[in-house]
Amino acid sequence: MSIRKIVMHPAEILEQICRPVEKFDKKLAKILDDMYDTMIENDGVGLAAPQIGLNLRAAIVDIDDEFGTIEMINPRIVKTAGEQTGPEGCLSFPDLFGEVTRPDFVKIEAFDRKGRSYSLEAEGFLARAIQHEIDHLDGILFTTKVIRYLKEDELKGVETE
Ligand code: CO
């Protein structure tokens, strides 16, 4: 287990388009394990590779539901539907929370750590977290989508990604 240091905004790596993962090897598995440990240590529900300083299209999401930990390597959003507006935070922006509007439903295609492709459909908060992480892989930060920042007394139960 290793906990990595989270890259805080502003940092160039957070606004770069990440490169696809090409090798599904032990090194990738170690990166994903470290991302998990780092996310849990920081009470997050998601983490993307650039947030630990790596230019790689790899991200994880775990909102503590029946899906468990979702590992997304080279993910693509293939379908979206509906709309939701809700609070978001990001581990790279401590103490900053805002409302973001996103599709309510997403279908993604991605690879797992062994290089097996899968597709997954999600809605609501899970769909939000998945989209937040995939945005990170394209250098898109949630602050570019915030429609209203939240005040301290509005933060109860808000998760960070
Ligand atoms: Co984030």
From TrEMBL:
Top EC class of this enzyme: hydrolase
Entry annotation: catalytic residues: E133
InterPro entries named in the record: Peptide_deformylase (IPR023635), Peptide_deformylase_sf (IPR036821)
Entry annotated with the keyword Cytoplasm: no
UniProt: Fe cation binding residues: C90, H132, H136
Enzyme Commission number(s): 3.5.1.88
Catalytic activity field: N-terminal N-formyl-L-methionyl-[peptide] + H2O = N-terminal L-methionyl-[peptide] + formate
SUPFAM superfamilies tied to this protein: Peptide deformylase
Cofactor(s) named in the record: Fe(2+)
Keywords attached to this entry: Hydrolase, Iron, Metal-binding, Protein biosynthesis
A GO molecular-function annotation: metal ion binding
Cofactor details (free text): Binds 1 Fe(2+) ion.
One of the Pfam families matching this protein, by short name: Pep_deformylase
GO aspect biological process, one term: translation
Similarity field: Belongs to the polypeptide deformylase family.
Role noted for this protein: Removes the formyl group from the N-terminal Met of newly synthesized proteins. Requires at least a dipeptide for an efficient rate of reaction. N-terminal L-methionine is a prerequisite for activity but the enzyme has broad specificity at other positions.
Name of the protein described by the UniProt record: Peptide deformylase
